Amino acid sequence: MRIFTTGASGWIGSAVVPELLAAGHRVVGLARSEASAEALVSAGVVPWRGSLSDLDSLRAGAEAADGVIHLAFNHDFSDYAGAGRTERAVVETLGEALEGSGRPLVVASGVAGLTVGRMATEEDPTPNVDPDAPRGASEHLALSFAARGVRSVAVRFAPTVHGRGDKGFTAMLVRIARERGVAAYIGDGANRWPAVHRNDAAHLVRLAFEQAQPGAVVHAVGEEGIATRDIAAAIGREFDVPTTALASENAQEHFGWIGALLGLDIPAASTLTRERFAWNPTGSGLLEDIAGGAYGRS
Asked: Where are the bilayer-spanning segments (predicted)?
């Protein structure tokens, strides 16, 4: 199949591409610049010039494809509301381009904040139907196209998609620990974060694209919940800094904006996903990656 992909050169997308190519698919990737286009060509991807703000290019790319995988997102935390509006416009454009065709539209979402204090599952309803919600309520919008002849699928990723080269949340925690000379957690640190290895997540994206039913919700979660104190302890051991508890009122000063997320208890299961797609994560765990030097060495 010819698959139009946004974010093909990103952290998750660059692992999804070889999965798709190995399965015999052709990948067309959105490229914002000549440098991005050259990188995609090197990876075996046909570049498609455009950007998330170029809706005409996105529409044409989707219309010319047998299906779409949308992984890109503008992570501009200085204007997160604006990023959400962009995301909503992108999903609406892609959905309309595929309307009535039965072709797949796989959209990236997340489990963070889905439920707090209890295990989230694939059966938990899609949150944030308000267009002004985070990410523009794009998951709800994407799944609504199932009633309009699109095989739309939401892949909810764990907040930590880890592996060597990760520059996401765990990398931020490592950087803060090294800068401040202490690996901290909030309160008693019993609150849990789910995680998934990048390669396992990429494999699941392909399975979802090929097999998921219209309106399906898929959980890319390899580990249901790792206590944040254990994450801090692993960082402390690897980078030879002490580990300490931090009062919640001091979290923002120490961590910045990520402190609000680090203090949440957001475990998530992937039981139904594993059963439906015979998906069995085999990648290393988050603590193993930290100990194995995936985030550098002290």
From this structure: none
